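ESCALATION

Customer reports they have been waiting on this structure for their group meeting. Please prioritize. Original submission:
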Amino acid sequence: MLNKKTFKSEIVIESPGRINLIGEHIDYNGGHVLPAAIDKKISLRFRMNNSNFCEIRSSNFKSSVTVNLDKIDRSEIEWHNFILGVLFHINAIKPNAVKGFDCIIESNLPFGAGISSSAALECGLAKGINELFDIGLTDLEIIKLSRDAEHAFVGTKCGIMDQFAVVKGQKDHLILLNCDTLDYQLIEADFDPYVVLLLNTNVSHNLANSAYNDRRDECDKALATIQKKHPEYRFLTEVPSKVVKELKKELPQNLFNRALFVCEENQRTLNAVDFLKNKAFDRFGQCLYQSHYGLQHLYDVSCKELDFLVEQTTDLDYVLGARMMGGGFGGCTVNIVHKDKVEELIDNVKAAYEDKFNITLTSIITTISDGTKKII
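Update from on-call: job pushed to the front of the queue and completed.
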């Protein structure tokens, strides 16, 4: 078993979590999102071991996985599949480039909080292997193979936003990403005197993974129906809301709701960026609330705990905006809060939340950070 105290690192990688200010469930619909890397990270320490086996130990899970590079198959243990998927897809791009290595993983990213600990792990592992064996993978190859690993080995049909933000994040900047073309702009993240606060529900409903894939399938079905009359649209995010509304009778209610949310959320993201550039913080905050209500009522991926946390902020003049963040059915809300009122908000909401649900609320004050990088 790997021992941290005696482990002689050859390569050390830091790989961050991410937040997404707005543009939820839009990346797999080809639209615009506004994520950023954050200061909470996974640390991965690598060394070669002169064998054909890889031993990866998670300090957080207090367990390890040993991989035979000649036989990479899916595991019954979920966190192993993030590792196995990355190894498999690197080997598909660069056969025989990966040799035996040892790795110790430590994290201060809360698992299941919707801040993409999975993408941080995938991209950090891929970056470390790339550096350790001088494979020559580009950032875009690391991003895409990490996403493909999650599709094929974990079974979540995620878009590309999480991996892109984790790899391409830059300190003090948000990323306005076009998830179709992968063109992006860096947007200055200057909220002063406000800060970004995450409130973690500490619930993770079993619906999350299956419902995520269901929503993607529903979007595909809605688009197929729309394309029968409007073949010019390749993605739901390209469809104007008026066109969706014109086809309401031809779409089942759930597909109509999904399509309407997607087209409105994409436009809302673009509007939010304009407000942010012009320092119209109040209007930016309203976009966050509108996003949450759309996720709650049209996309049906919120839950009572998330809704409660958002509702607690709506009448507070020191909170610009709040919404659920991530796949849904648990995880965090993202809140833009005046820096002088952060502790007051946490104390008040924590007490109300525990009284309502008998669950301890945790909070995370984040700063915008750099993406995955080699430290040693």
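Sent to customer with the following note: The two ends are 23 Å apart (CA to CA).
Escalation resolved.
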